[in-house]
């Protein structure tokens, strides 16, 4: 039997098979910095397009100048940053969300993802306002770390369950996720939930006021802010940064319980106390400004309260305001004052002064020496006030629209002031 001599190019077939396999792998591998149709339908948005730094800028600056750049489809921190600089933020604010990202640290790397960060020149660094999901190469870090400084923590506040953490080493990719849903917070690492807590509870405030943030009065209070990446002196890379916004839930809040001062913080030496179910403020011996501020932020709300002016009634209700170092407030005041001094008007505590005063004919609406009902509605850039059922002012202002902060009652300086308050009821919008 004669067998034909057939030329068989084994190498050519093998090469063709390898090319086909490579094609299959490349076609099935997930494309980075992109969203699937399912993710788009679910509301996910990319915060990084894989090619440019569009959508990011320096903290407290209008443009990007910090040493961050795009390398091989990743946002990369060059490692030139420090505690005082090297932060970049999104150009959009976020309130409730799921935020997911991949990260890759160099050996001894130290970085972080912050959220609800407030941009204001009075805050020199973002971490005094925004919570941080800590990213750090624990095994190789050259300094001793406290537990609250380690990977996955809510920095200086809450610790993850170490038994649940599976971490790829420095130089390899990991995925993290933050869920912030109307105060409910979750930290995830490589698809496992490692930490869960509730913001703005008694436990949360006890931790805030007794640790690293004891002298950072505005830390963690903002309900909305920019997302921030940190360059802390070692190269770090990020990709697949995406966010899905979650809806805001409304609630009704009784700001004053009629029993004690719980839920409020006193700034200054003036007197704040409860007597017969009434909140009383009066001048102290220093005769200086004093503030009684909610410990929580309220941005969009409808507030009603009653007040009665005894002695001099020079006071006010601050909205979207925060406390600077010492006894100084930064924000906007709805005036409460003796007749003839624009009760219900809106005054800016810095810079511009009166934004809007009430018409002269409305001065008679104030009932001196009696209980008055004030209503304040704040939504977006609009503020509307009513006194005893009559509209006093309606003003739109971009700066108010960009503001965020506490509600605070004021004692004016000069001495001799005494104002009573009751039925402080708020509905978030």
Q: What report would you give on this structure?
A:
The protein is mostly beta strands. Helices cover 9% and strands 42% of the residues. The chain has 4 helices and 28 strands. Strands 1, 3, 4, 6, 9, 10, 11 and 13 form an 8-stranded antiparallel beta sheet that branches. Strands 14, 16, 17, 19, 24, 25, 26 and 28 form an 8-stranded antiparallel beta sheet that branches. The longest helix has 19 residues, at 10-28. The chain is elongated, with a radius of gyration of 28 Å.
> How confident overall, as mean pLDDT?
91
Total number of β-strand segments? 28
Uncertain parts: 1-28
Biggest β-sheet: count, sense, barrel? 8 strands, antiparallel
Q: Number of helical segments?
A: 4
Overall 3D form: elongated
User: What's the alpha carbon Rg, rounded to whole Å?
Assistant: 28 Å
Beta-strand fraction estimate: 35-45%
Structural class: mainly beta
Distance between the termini: 93 Å
Helix content: under 10%
Q: What's the SSE blueprint?
A:
Elements: H1 10-28, H2 37-42, E1 44-46, E2 56-58, E3 68-71, E4 74-77, E5 87-94, E6 97-105, E7 110-117, E8 132-136, E9 174-181, E10 184-189, E11 192-198, H3 202-210, E12 225-231, E13 236-245, E14 252-254, E15 264-267, E16 271-275, E17 278-282, E18 290-297, E19 301-311, E20 315-324, E21 328-336, E22 346-348, E23 354-356, E24 372-379, E25 382-387, E26 390-396, H4 398-402, E27 406-411, E28 417-428
